[in-house]
Design goal:
The protein is α/β, with parallel strands linked by helices. Helix content is 25%, strand content 26%.
Length: 269
C-alpha cells in the first residue's frame, strides 16, 4: 500500500517504524518543523523527522506542500489541522488516544491523567473536516494506573497503536466504520501556567497535575521549585519524590531537605 505518514513526537516513531517494516511504500513523511530546544535554544528536528531521514524518506514540514495521491494517509499526533488538499487526496486515518467522543482535541492523554481517569482507549478513526468527529474503525481500551505519567501512557498508546495500525492496514475492509455516539467533550492546550500548584485542591489533584504535566511549580521556604515526581502515601498525603530548585539539577526529596539544614518546611511559601 502506498502511504503518506504525518506525525511529530517520539511515541509516534515505533508506529511508523512498524508500518515501514511490513513493507508498505512510504511516499513521504510530514512533521512539524524544527524547534528551539533547551537553554541554548538549539534548533532541533522532531523525532519523526529524524526517523524519516534515517530511512531516506522525503520529509516535509508544511502541509501546504502536500501534493500526493497515496492509497491512504496515516496521521498520529501531527499537530496540524488538515485541509482539503490532504483530505480529498485519499482516505485519511488517525490514531487518537481517548475513548471517543470523550476528549476530542490535542491533549487527551494529559487531560485524562489530570482528571484522574482510571480508564481510556485508543481509537483508530477516519479523519474528517470536523475535529476528531470521524467514524471509528477500531477501539481498544486500556487502564491508567494511579502513578502513571504522560510518558507512561504515551508508551502504552504507542504499543497499542502499532498493533492497531498494522492490523488495519493489512486488511482495511475487515474493520467497518462505526459512528461515534454520545456527547463529545474537548481538551485544550496546556501551558506553563497550568503547572502552578494550588495546594487547596488536595493531594490527589496535585499528584494528578504533576504526573499529567511533568512538573508542578511552587515555592518551598521561599525557593522556586519544580516538583517532578510524587506519590500518594498510605495516609493519603502527598509524598514528594523528586524536585528541582530553580537553577539546579533535579534531586530527590531527601537531598533537598538536607539542604534546608533542619529548617521548618513551608510548602507554598
Amino acid at each position: 500500500m502506498k502511504l503518506v505518514l504525518m506525525g511529530t513526537p517520539a511515541f509516534v516513531v515505533p508506529m511508523f517504524d512498524a508500518i515501514y517494516n511490513v513493507g508498505h511504500e512510504i511516499l513521504a513523511v510530514f512533521t512539524r518543523g524544527p524547534k528551539p530546544v533547551g537553554r541554548k535554544q538549539v534548533l532541533t528536528k522532531s523525532p519523526v523527522h529524524v526517523w524519516a531521514e534515517s530511512k531516506n524518506i522525503p520529509v516535509f514540514n508544511r502541509a501546504s506542500e502536500y501534493n500526493f495521491s497515496p492509497d491512504m494517509v496515516v496521521v498520529v499526533s501531527y499537530g496540524v489541522i488538515l485541509r482539503d488538499n490532504v483530505l480529498s487526496s485519499a482516505p485519511c486515518i488517525n490514531i487518537h488516544p481517548s475513548d471517543l467522543p470523550k476528549y476530542r482535541g490535542a491533549s487527551p492523554i494529559k487531560t485524562a491523567i489530570y482528571n484522574g481517569d482510571a480508564h481510556s482507549a485508543v481509537c483508530l478513526m477516519q479523519i474528517t473536516a470536523e475535529m476528531d468527529a470521524g467514524d471509528v474503525y477500531m477501539r481498544r481500551a486500556f487502564d491508567i494506573g494511579d502513578d502513571d505519567t504522560n510518558d507512561d501512557i504515551e508508551n502504552r498508546v504507542s504499543k497499542i497503536g502499532t498493533e492497531m495500525l498494522t492490523e488495519y492496514l493489512a486488511n482495511p475492509a475487515a474493520y467497518p466504520p462505526v459512528a461515534q455516539t454520545g456527547t463529545p467533550t474537548f481538551t485544550r492546550k496546556w501551558t506553563g501556567a497550568d503547572e502552578i500548584i494550588d495546594w487547596s485542591r488536595g493531594a490527589r489533584a496535585v499528584h494528578n497535575q504533576i504526573r499529567a504535566l511533568g512538573a508542578g511549580r511552587t515555592k518551598i521556604n521561599g525557593t522556586d521549585v519544580k516538583i517532578l515526581r510524587t506519590r500518594i502515601a498510605q495516609n493519603g498525603e502527598l509524598e514528594i519524590l523528586q524536585i528541582q530548585p530553580a537553577g539546579k539539577k533535579p534531586m530527590d526529596w531527601k537531598s533537598f531537605t538536607n539542604g534546608l539544614r533542619g529548617a521548618e518546611i513551608k510548602i507554598g511559601e
